[in-house]
Amino acid sequence: MVRSGRQQATTVRLARRRPGPGRVRVRAQPRRPAGLRRWWRRIDWGRAGTITAVAAALAGLLLTGVSTLYDALVSQSGLE
Does residue 24 sit in helix, strand or coil? Predict the structure, then answer.
């Protein structure tokens, strides 16, 4: 390599080899059986949230229908 008119010796070092996905060892961790896991880890929270949202929407729809019927009955009795 030439730098500012004089030659310097450079050494090339290879990059150290890092483990790739095929060379990584997985540490064995003791796991509990599926039946002994905590209850909140056994629940599929995406599905539970969807079911809760559907139930709340149905309750809101039912409440809206009942209040509309009651409003119609009150209005009809007011006109008579």
Answer: coil
